[in-house]
Backbone:
């Protein structure tokens, strides 16, 4: 049950709504469970509504009311237990909000290290799907996202290595960089890790030289959770398809290049389905679509230069730039 409906349910069972302070993370219809704050380099929480925290007395009433109150109390106890222990286990992540500072964690491991009576994998999974928190930097995330597998953590580190390198790195070079960081994996695992975040292989990255001096961010999936972390500043952005696109002079996963005076607002439109570009719409609806961005006040000229560079490199404009996007307007 989503937190907003859960609040209404508590109010209906207890007779009157509890006083509430809402922290809505920019997603209509969703209420965050708590706000994470940093105090003396330690993460702490501020529960968004007292009704999510209280243990309500169970009077000698009718069986249905007793059952409802016990269910509410159990869920509140579970929610506090999960968040309290995640704050400590993923402490580095709350301080930096860098995905490479996450510690690999599975549901079973969490329950083994932090057991609670009646809390099992099934109940934990269902609660993680609805428990959202406001991060110290003002973003909004679901607690499920701080549970990452070893492979997904490896993919975050691979992406950081690729983005920080001035030269294109093949999988063997990436494997060596990972080993220097204390992560010993096979080349096949490096390949799987890249694929998990849809990072192109060495050959494709090596020929994607249209960026010039534009220092793009790393690739990340196009979803509301990630978009809330992007600043409200002007810049250019790139949308990558889930699979490589065949252009005249080679393959590239780049499907669209755009520019805007507010990156967060424009990219949020794509998650709402507010797309007039009929060539881009089917791409956005696919799973595995990634984005990256480059902040710049001179976003119009930067977009034009990138489009011209892309055409010079691949023989044509990105497939969804049907109007030329400020370049020469021809396909």
Residues:
């Amino acid at each position: 049950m989503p937190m907003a409906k859960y609040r209404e349910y508590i109010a209906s069972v207890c007779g009157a709504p509890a006083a509430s302070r809402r922290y809505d993370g920019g997603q209509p219809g969703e209420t965050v469970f708590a706000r994470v704050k940093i105090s003396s380099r330690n993460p702490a929480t501020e529960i968004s509504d007292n009704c999510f925290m209280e243990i309500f007395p169970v009077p000698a009433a009718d069986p249905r009311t007793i059952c409802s109150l016990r269910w509410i109390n159990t869920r509140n106890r579970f929610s506090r237990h999960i968040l309290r222990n995640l704050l400590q286990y993923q402490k580095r992540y709350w301080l930096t909000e860098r995905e490479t500072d996450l510690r690999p964690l599975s549901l079973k491991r969490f329950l083994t290290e932090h057991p609670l009576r009646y809390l099992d994998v099934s109940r934990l999974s269902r609660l993680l799907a609805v428990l959202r928190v406001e991060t110290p930097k003002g973003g909004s995330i679901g607690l499920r996202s701080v549970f990452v597998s070893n492979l997904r953590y490896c993919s975050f580190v691979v992406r950081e290595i690729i983005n920080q390198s001035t030269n294109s790195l093949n999988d063997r070079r990436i494997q060596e960089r990972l080993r220097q960081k204390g992560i010993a994996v096979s080349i096949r695992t490096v390949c799987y890790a890249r694929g998990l975040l849809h990072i192109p292989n060495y050959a494709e990255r090596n020929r994607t030289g249209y960026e010039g001096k534009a220092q793009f961010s790393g690739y990340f999936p196009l979803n509301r959770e990630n978009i809330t972390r992007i600043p409200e500043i002007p810049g250019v952005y790139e949308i990558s398809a889930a699979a490589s696109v065949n252009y005249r002079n080679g393959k590239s996963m780049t499907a669209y290049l755009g520019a805007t005076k507010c990156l967060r607002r424009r990219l949020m439109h794509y998650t709402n389905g507010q797309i007039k570009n009929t060539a881009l719409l089917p791409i956005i609806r696919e799973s595995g679509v990634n984005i990256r961005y480059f902040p710049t006040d001179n976003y119009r000229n930067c977009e034009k230069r990138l489009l011209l560079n892309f055409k010079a490199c691949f023989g044509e404009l990105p497939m969804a730039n049907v109007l030329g996007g400020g370049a020469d307007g021809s396909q």
